[in-house]
Design goal:
The protein has 9 helices and 17 strands. It is an alpha+beta fold. The strands form 3 sheets. A 9-stranded mixed sheet has the order 10-7-17-16-15-11-8-9-14. The chain has a 6-stranded mixed sheet with strand order 1-2-6-3-4-5. The chain has a two-stranded antiparallel sheet with strand order 12-13. A hairpin with a 3-residue loop joins β16 and β17. α1 crosses α4 and α4 crosses α5. It is elongated, with a radius of gyration of 23 Å. About 2% of the residues have low confidence.
Length: 396
């Protein structure tokens, strides 16, 4: 572990301990509960650095007092940390916690790190990344949310617990299909919602993911679908990130997948992009899925060889690890194209620890079929991590 990462983890761990100690105070716990209930973000998130300088200043002062440091010192230590989120990532915890002392505060720098967690008495608590505990957990983690984008008033009016007894109402309000999705109306952004016409191009209309690449400590995943391929016919081995769709992208590329299954309509690669790409090479492009933690549509991965991963998928899939989109605009199904084995010997986009969830291969090319999908998501060679329906569609 680098000294920089180790130092940041230690500082975040100490911040979590101080916050946990401050939650011994009944009034502070009620302040946190009500502030999260009123937070205008998905998953009832607060930007901790802002919260502690505003409405949450009593929490900051209580944390400093419990830790035996001055308020000025507390602020200085906050300034030394990255932007952080403060929320309850587990919906069941948000529905059950009424502000009592039975609560844990945990922090995590990266999604594979063991959480550093404390109870309100300052005792260390061990947490399992695979399963949340019954005791409600509040997390302090790096920012994944665009806090400049609030949910619309009509959604805010329907969510939360109007009686202020818990953060999230145990009953399901109208317009919400599940608390994991938060809401399923076009106003929420993502989910295929939006206004205007859809251009011609390549679309995803259904996706099933087995592993979404996000532990419970980090709440809902940020799923993105990326198009990868060369940018120039003179450099076919120079891979680039050509297009991106996902939950923090606007119409018509926006969609939000917080659960195992998603259906809707999201543009992946428009027809002008397809035509320009086909003019560069006819060997197809890769359609890959990522869980992108901290930066919107900016894939970053340390110590990771995507070219080798694609080659392993190609080998397991009989040479197929790319898809080709028709130059026409009719709703024809996509055909598999032979993977360009020497592609991506250098990359423009992979060098933060986003999770690679797989690359799509035409299902018929590898001898499988689904009633709801025409592509299978391969990861680590022949391991299947999901499926999707990818189609080309005319403007509509």
């Amino acid at each position: 572990m680098s000294e920089g990462k180790s130092s940041t983890q230690a500082r975040q761990g100490e911040l979590a301990r101080r916050v946990a100690l401050a939650l011994q105070d009944d009034a502070i716990r009620q302040l946190v509960k009500t502030s999260m209930r009123d937070a205008p973000q998905r998953e009832y998130k607060l930007e901790l650095n802002v919260f502690l300088r505003g409405v949450g200043a009593p929490l900051r002062s209580a944390a400093a007092l419990r830790a035996g440091v001055t308020d000025a010192a507390m602020l200085a230590e906050l300034n030394a940390l990255p932007r952080l989120e403060f929320y309850m990532p587990v919906s069941a915890h948000r529905k059950s916690w009424d502000g009592d002392k039975d609560v844990i505060v945990a922090t995590q720098l990266e999604d594979t790190d063991a959480p550093i967690a404390w109870d309100v008495n300052g005792r260390r608590v061990s947490l399992d990344l695979s399963t949340p505990p019954q005791t409600p957990v509040i997390v302090i983690v790096p920012v994944e949310t665009d806090f400049t984008r609030a949910l619309p008033p009509s959604i805010l009016a329907a969510r939360g617990d109007a009686q202020r007894q818990t953060i999230e109402d145990p009953a399901m309000p109208p317009g919400f299909s599940s608390y994991a999705l938060e809401c399923d109306t076009p106003e929420c952004g993502g989910g295929g919602g939006g206004s205007g016409s859809f251009p011609a191009g390549l679309y995803i209309t259904f996706q099933r993911l087995v592993d979404q690449g996000e532990p419970w400590t980090l709440g809902a995943p940020e799923i993105e679908v990326h198009i990868h391929g060369p940018q120039s016919s003179s450099a076919l081995q120079y891979g680039a990130d050509l297009a991106c769709s996902g939950d923090r992208v606007g119409f018509p590329r926006g969609f939000n997948q917080d659960a195992a299954f998603w259906s809707g309509e999201s543009l992946l690669f428009d027809q002008s992009q397809i035509n320009a790409y086909n003019a560069i090479q006819a060997n197809g492009f890769n359609v890959s899925v990522w869980e992108d933690d901290n930066t919107v549509c900016q894939i970053k991965k340390e110590d990771f060889n995507l070219a080798a991963r694609f080659a392993a998928v190609a080998s397991a899939a009989g040479g197929y690890a790319a898809v080709s989109a028709a130059t026409g605009v009719g709703p024809t199904l996509l055909a598999a194209a032979t993977f360009l084995g020497t592609a991506y010997s250098s990359l423009t986009f992979l060098w933060s620890n986003d999770d690679f969830l797989g690359t799509y291969v035409n299902a018929s090319a590898v001898g499988v079929s689904y009633s709801d999908a025409n592509h299978v998501l391969y990861i680590n060679g022949g391991q299947v991590n999901g499926r999707a329906m990818l189609v080309t569609q005319a403007a509509h």
